Recover the amino acids of this structure.
């Protein structure tokens, strides 16, 4: 193992002793902040820093733990099934990589817990105030990058299932452009093995109607269109700094949609984007845009904008002039 660097604040230096998890040296205490199903922190290996996550469930039954044989076998089978399912998902995520996903690098068991390691990203989530300050051209770039990344996930039948601002790491580059990284695939699943009931994770602010139905074990088909719904809400926040509007008797967008209540898309959003968001927030998945249709719509908006700019440039050009007698004169001089 190469030289390991340890980065710790003075406050925690005397309270925490770095320790190994497999080949990774944990450099600070793990936290469960914003992650109810796991703990996370940062570690190093070979001098490079990584993000590491410890799953709280399932827990592998070590031989040192006294259990009845049938209980031990059942717990081991659950762990094996969970591990194999995670591998399928993570391989599909890696196959979808377009440069803006932060895919798993390693999934392994150490003692009784399972761990996930990814690259550490320096970008941080932006709040709605920061998002509203981004110029429209950069907002559009972020929307296209996001739609392109999720189209690739959808093509590989991956549902992120927890698309929200907190899981989008946005950073301004030295050239004043913006980059975006998609993180946290804990809640993700493949279309052919969608969770049901209490197995389903996700943020209620961005929850699709069909996801809630599946949570209460009502008939529902979970597909990448779950992410389309969440992305419609993210687009609304990106474009105007706030959530779509709905009647105060509801707490979340999905509740209003399920009850066929009006969803108010901000008038501050350009009309072409208002139309797109409305298609992304449709109640029935069959009526809702697919992720590829979202990307296609964005490409169409871009093409229309370029055509309009080209037409405006031609219209703004000076009137043609005619050559006569070795000098340039106005065509009006021929009257």
């Amino acid at each position: 193992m190469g030289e390991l660097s340890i980065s710790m604040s003075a406050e925690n230096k005397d309270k925490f002793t770095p320790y190994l998890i497999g080949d990774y040296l944990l450099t600070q205490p793990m936290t469960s902040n914003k992650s109810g199903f796991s703990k996370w922190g940062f570690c190093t290996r070979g001098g490079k820093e990584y993000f590491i996550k410890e799953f709280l469930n399932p827990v592998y039954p070590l031989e040192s733990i006294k259990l009845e044989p049938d209980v031990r076998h059942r717990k081991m089978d659950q762990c094996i099934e969970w591990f194999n399912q995670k591998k399928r998902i993570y391989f599909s995520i890696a196959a979808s990589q377009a440069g803006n996903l932060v895919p798993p690098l390693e999934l392994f068991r150490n003692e009784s817990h399972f761990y996930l390691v990814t690259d550490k990203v320096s970008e941080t989530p932006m709040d709605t105030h920061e998002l509203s300050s981004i110029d429209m051209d950069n907002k559009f770039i972020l929307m296209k990058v996001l739609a392109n990344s999720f189209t690739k996930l959808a093509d590989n039948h991956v549902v992120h299932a927890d698309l929200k601002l907190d899981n989008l790491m946005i950073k301004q580059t030295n050239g004043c452009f913006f980059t975006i990284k998609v993180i946290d695939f804990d809640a993700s699943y493949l279309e052919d093995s969608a969770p049901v009931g209490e197995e389903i994770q996700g943020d209620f602010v961005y929850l699709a109607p069909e996801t809630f139905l599946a949570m209460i074990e009502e008939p529902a088909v979970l597909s990448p269109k779950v992410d389309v719904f969440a992305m419609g809400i993210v687009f609304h926040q990106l474009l105007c700094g706030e959530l779509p509007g709905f009647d105060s008797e509801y707490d979340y967008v999905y509740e209003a949609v399920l009850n066929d209540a009006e969803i108010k898309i901000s008038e501050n959003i350009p009309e072409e984007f208002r139309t797109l968001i409305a298609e992304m927030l449709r109640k029935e998945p069959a009526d809702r845009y697919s992720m590829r249709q979202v990307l296609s719509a964005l490409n169409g908006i871009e093409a229309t904008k370029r055509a309009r700019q080209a037409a405006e440039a031609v219209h703004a050009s000076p009137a043609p002039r005619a050559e006569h007698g070795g000098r340039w004169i106005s065509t009006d001089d021929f009257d």
Observations:
- The chain has a mean pLDDT of 87.
